[in-house]
Amino acid sequence: MSTSETDEYAIGKCACGKGDVIKTMVTQDNPWSGADISFRVDCNDCRGKWELDRSGQQMTLRSSLVAPKQASDLLMHARQFLDEYIRGLSSQYFMAQSFKTRKAEHAHLIELGIGTGSYRTYLQDRKHSPIQNVGYPSRNAAFVEKLIKTYGNEKHYFDLLKAIADADAVYKAAASTIVRYQV
Predict the structure, then answer these.
(1) Are 52 and 73 in the same domain?
(2) CB 3.0-4.6 Å disulfide test: which of 83, 122, 147, 156 passes with 89?
(3) What angle do CA 146, 114, 85 make, to 5 degrees?
(4) Nearest to residue 18, comparing CAs of 36, 38, 39, 45?
């Protein structure tokens, strides 16, 4: 039968200064178990408004995370639109190719610098996905440029890049408004 010992220490004040940040250590009485360490805010005012990081050293105002999260989602969607556009163009590219074997497909992806992994992994991925979804066409700028010139629309491509740049600027501005408190 195992017993444990629990120790709690105040490691600092909370953001409003009325309460404490508490470090809890639970240790077992056997030599092979480690300590379970957790942190909590012992303040009714701060507990709902602030989020404590895993190290217990920093608190973040929850309401200040809303705008950066929304901006991050917009940036992610802008990047997805570009990725979908490039994958659509690469689909046209690969439809125009004639590979005799899957090994030749894999070798071509590696040659373009848009394929990763072993041939075995490629075969597993290729069972469930078309070739343009197995590779990463965005990794090769020259290949993307060729796709745009051959199958795409440069204006649309540059509009997508601008949307990403704009979303990134909004995200960086929103992230700079996050309120943090060092414990």
Answers:
(1) no
(2) 147
(3) 55
(4) 45
Domain assignment present for 84: yes
Burial of 129: CB neighbours in 10 Å, binned 0-12, 13-18, 19+? exposed
- DSSP class of residue 43? -
pLDDT for 29 beyond 80: yes
> In the block, which residue shows the tokens 């992610």?
76
How many Å apart are CA 120 and CA 123, to the nearest integer? 5
Q: Same structural domain for residues 169 and 80?
A: yes
Structurally, how many domains does the chain consist of?
Answer: 2
Which residues does residue 20 pair with via DSSP β-bridges, in sequence order?
Answer: 13, 42
Q: Looking at the chain, which runs of residues are DSSP E strands?
A: 4-13, 20-28, 36-42, 50-52, 58-61, 180-182
Most confident stretch, 29-38, 66-75, 91-100, 112-121: 66-75
Q: CB 33: neighbour CB atoms within 10 A?
A: 12
* pLDDT score for 178: 97
Q: Is 27 in the same domain as 112?
A: no
Looking at residues 94-120, what average pLDDT do you find?
93
What does the pLDDT read at residue 117? 84
